[in-house]
TrEMBL record:
Gene3D superfamilies: Ribonuclease Inhibitor. CDD domains: F-box_FBXL15. This is F-box domain-containing protein. InterPro entries: LRR_dom_sf (IPR032675). SUPFAM superfamilies: RNI-like (SSF52047).
Length: 306
């Protein structure tokens, strides 16, 4: 017997389907193209924007004229995460991401708790200006990711301003950040007592570096054991709620063993340390971490580099 359904796909509430389920999978360009189809499509598109919880401001993926940017500022009210890609987009954003625009975007989205910034290789005055505006306006978010590639601009100035306005971060990801100047990393972490997840950059203290290797994509890599040891010691003293730590280091030398031990002893909630894929660490330290029930990731050798 043939089954006849009383409803079909076309009986579904299209607006609810688009706004509540499909919008989060679309790029901004797709939503704005949809808005251009009809007056009804424009209303649905605005509703889709107003229901978004995550947005990526990136040229040329997002529309770049003044009208569409104004629509974003006015329509988005439920954002929880904002990604800003300044790579190859610094001129566009330097014009539109003014102090007033940033304040309006954040005021309209009071529940934003995560910011991700990618500066790529756009080391320019425009980039620095946008970073400064973001640092002074992002007061409530708890998760922060900073990306950039060598050689770009120092992250220090941004973090210094950021700390003045926000000292309650829970997560900070500096995996792809550029170099810290001497002492700036410690100063930043001294003011972030609530951090639970930390991903450190691959280089510290460029003025006291040790040349390690040359990578065909990222260029020369440098490291300063003293700078990293001081930073780890500061984290151990301040970040008592630390749960996850990522260290991108080519060789975990004896100088750093004491700092690692201090972190494990001072941070009882720590459960995972993720080393760089080509890190080396001694059997003694590895055994100690396992004894303390610390999950160790990323190690492919156990001999200490001397």
């Amino acid at each position: 017997e043939k089954i006849v359904f009383s409803t079909s796909l076309f009986d579904l509430p299209v607006e609810d389907l688009l706004v509540s389920h499909l919008a989060k999978y679309l790029k901004l360009r797709d939503i704005f193209n949809f808005r251009c189809c009809s007056r009804y499509s424009k209303d649905v598109g605005d509703a889709m924007l107003s229901d978004l919880q995550e947005i990526t401001l990136k040229y040329p993926i997002m529309p770049y004229n003044e009208i569409t940017f104004r629509v974003i500022l006015q329509a988005c009210h439920k954002l929880r995460k904002i990604c800003i890609d300044l790579n190859r987009s610094y001129y566009y954003f330097s014009v539109r991401l003014t102090d007033e625009a940033i304040k309006e975007l954040l005021d309209n989205n009071s529940h934003v708790d995560e910011i991700e910034i990618d500066i790529g290789n756009s080391a320019s005055d425009s980039t620095i200006n946008v970073l400064s505006l973001l640092a002074s306006n992002c007061k409530n978010f708890a998760k922060f990711t900073f990306r950039g590639y060598l050689p770009v601009l120092p992250v220090d100035g941004f973090l210094k301003v950021l700390t003045q306005h926000n000292n309650h971060l829970l997560e900070v990801n500096l995996t792809f950040a550029v170099d810290f100047c001497e002492g700036e990393a410690e100063e930043f972490f001294k003011n972030q007592h609530q951090l639970q997840r930390i991903c450190l950059p691959p280089i510290f203290g460029a003025e006291h570096f040790t040349y390690i290797q040359y990578h065909r994509f990222t260029g020369p890599a440098f490291q300063s054991d003293k700078a990293l040891a001081r930073t780890l010691s500061t984290i151990a003293d301040v970040c008592k709620d630390l749960r996850y730590l990522k260290i991108q280091w080519f060789g975990i030398k004896p100088m750093l063993h004491m700092a690692l031990t201090k972190i494990v002893e001072n941070c009882p909630k720590l459960h995972t340390i993720n080393f760089s894929f080509n890190s080396t660490i001694s059997d003694e330290v590895l055994s100690y971490l396992k004894l303390k029930n610390i999950q160790v990731k990323g190690i492919n050798a156990k001999d200490v580099q001397q």
